Amino acid sequence: MKSTGTNSRRQFIITCILAVVILVPSLWGFGTKFIEFIALFRSSSDGVFAISPIMNYLLAGLGFFCLLCWGMAQGMFTDVERPKYTMLQTEQRLDEAQQQHTPIANAPDHNLT
Predict the structure, then answer these.
(1) What is the spatial distance between Cα 53 and Cα 30, in angstroms, rounded to a whole number?
(2) CB-based burial label for 54 (10 Å; 0-12, 13-18, 19+)
(3) Are 4 and 12 in contact (CB under 8 A)?
(4) Is the dihedral of CA 97, 98, 103, 109 positive or negative?
(5) Tens-of-pLDDT digits for all 113 residues of the chain?
(6) 105 lies in a domain?
(7) Residue 112 lies in a domain
(8) Whole-number Å distance between alpha carbons of 80 and 65
(9) Overall number of domains in the chain
(10) 57 contacts 30 by C-beta, under 8 angstroms
(11) Domain range spanning residue 85?
């Protein structure tokens, strides 16, 4: 049986490898396209249209960075397993509450006549 430290270290290594494999090509594509837009804007008078994509890239990147910082400040990355247990506990409570109360549609008919 493996210890928790070994599993944690392996998970960290796998996460780092996946981060590099995913983020490096994404950053490369984003960076080269951004540099192309800036070069186009500087090179010709018709390159003014490139201001819009440049601003979109900057604002979208800044927005995602702000969301990341907010999530880190709120502690959303400290215990990523908790939400699934909370969801299952809530579902169990709702199921128990539903079993205790008979819905009106399934209630027995009472003839008052």
Answers:
(1) 12
(2) middle
(3) no
(4) negative
(5) 456 667 888 988 999 999 999 999 998 998 898 888 888 888 877 778 888 888 888 899 899 999 999 998 988 888 888 888 999 999 999 999 888 875 555 555 555 55
(6) no
(7) no
(8) 19
(9) 1
(10) yes
(11) 8-99
